[in-house]
Amino acid sequence: MSQTIPALSHGILSYRVHETAPYINWIYFFHAWGFQPRFAAIADIHGCDSCRAMWLASFPEEERAKAAEAMQLFKEANRVLDQLDEKITIRCIFRLCRANADGDDLLIDETRFPLLRQQTPHPDGSPFLCLSDFIRPLSSGIPDVIGLFASSISSDTEKFYKDDPYKHLLVQTLSDRLAEAGTEKLHEYVRKEAWGYAPDESFSIPQLLKEEYQGIRPAVGYPSLPDQSVNFLLDALLDMKQIGITLTENGAMHPHASVCGLMMAHPASRYFAVGKIGEDQLEDYAHRRGMPVEKMRKFLAANLPK
Questions:
Q1: CA-based nearest residue to 129, from 120, 138, 137
Q2: Do 79 and 169 have their domain in common?
């Protein structure tokens, strides 16, 4: 892990759609349209008619109509991406900060950033993880580094194709994927250049999408960072309005096609799900966040027992 802040400690990057589209994870796009992952493989097929025909023929007869539907959806999605290339920009911001772990909290510069630890035992006996486990502890006396990021679409795509519900929904689902793809491209740049802890990294995009690189990029709202209210902490550190992101009173990001979170370089870091937490952890976490328990209960409703 790095112990000093790299020279390129913060920055704003803008990408065009054609620069970002290769980083789209099509599995999540097709999932949003009700397709199982195997149908997303059309994105890996060469565009010639014979290749598409062979792909279609690889499905059982009862699934070929669905596969043909996926093929058409992918074709139309790419047509919309071409149209969006002249209309929108994917904007990303990052900052590299000094950090240490203090129990289940992170100390990021002058900001205390509370986190949640897993509470449900694992059948394999693996440890109960917290994201703070991947940052050097304060007791070591040695500062570590953490990355912060946010990405968003520059234009209000919610207004595009209002008179065409199908194309409007295409734009919305593609905007979500482009924001995530911009983050993927940003993270690659940070690892190799800005932070530079993996300067010789050389992965194909499929390898990147399989997360074969060193480090993790947990986003707010994802299983290891489920509390949306930490968006306020990230905003205070990043000033996300620089790329057009504002927060609602509940911490939701606008535009909707936005994503933010943390970047960690520890070679042993990995993704996990906090899962269900008890009332005692809820109260402890609310205290560390400086928020009333009942308000925090709303933010963590999905992590509390029914």
A1: 120
A2: no
Quickly list DSSP for 102-138: ETTEEEETTEEEE-----SPPTT------GGGGS-BG
Q: How many domains does the chain have?
A: 2
Start-to-end C-alpha separation, the chain: 40
Residues 56 and 125 in one domain: no
Tell me, yes or no, whether 53 and 135 share the same domain.
no
Which tens digit of pLDDT belongs to each residue from 206-253?
999 999 999 999 999 999 999 999 999 999 999 999 999 999 999 999
Query: In terms of C-beta distances under 8 Å and separation of at least 24 residues, what long-range contacts does 69-72 make, across chains too?
Result: 70/30, 70/35, 70/39, 70/40, 70/42, 71/42
Entry pTM = 0.93
Give the domain extent around 52. Answer: 17-86
